[in-house]
Amino acid sequence: MKDSIYRGVMGEVPAFAFDEEVARVFPDMIERSVPGYQATLSAAGALAQKLAQSGDRIYELGCSRGAAILSMDRAIPSDLEVELIGVDRSQAMLDACHHDLIDSGVAQHHVSLLKQDIRSVEMNNARLIILNFTLQFIPIEDRLKLLSRALRALKPGGALLLSEKVRLADERIDDLCIDLHHDFKRSQGYSDLEIARKRDALVGVLVPEPIQAHKDRLSAAGFSASEVWYQAFNFCSLIALK
Ligand code: GEK
Asked: What's the pLDDT tens digit per position in 112-135?
């Protein structure tokens, strides 16, 4: 379904929330809003294919409608016994995810969906943890604790995929990339008004940080290495190793 949520909003724009209306249009919304989104989904699949072994768990924290889970499910050989666990606190997203992945019978591996806050979800035996554009919605003061818990949940040799909207270190290039992102959204059919309203709705909800802040935090959490493997304007994705 096409995202036209901010076409009709008049007056003060309410804060963005992952409610039923958003869940309904989410695949279209994220595809037309996040340059490089498909590349991050492919990377989740490629990483899962490379790293997964029987007995592993793979978590997607903030799974929305499960696009990354689906990419990993397809990429992991069917003879491996791997459990894919999606966590989200939005019931509307989880209902849609359940419909897309489980009711439809497309998943070849065991998929579990948990309605929980990712800050308190229990995780263990993980080979791979995916945070695909989710950490940006967690209050900054809670981010280190979450990453430390993710590190503890990973098996030796495990990895984290962290994709985020970021602030670029150079202010002029940051401004330029924000403009280029808005051009991207325009090219995807969003109007200037829709772009402006969505931006207002996300203030204080989606809080981007500099790439170096993410790298420093991953290191503080105990990850042995992290590198940016992909960037499109002010959207970036890192791989971190236990
Ligand atoms: C994808 N990864 O398609 N606890 C649980 N879930 C949360 C929390 C929280 N504290 N905060 C936010 N979420 C997906 C896209 S969307 C990204 C992820 C975006 C959930 C929220 O309900 C939403 O489903 C998801 O994180 C973020 O690859 O909308 O830009």
From this structure: 999 999 999 999 999 999 999 999
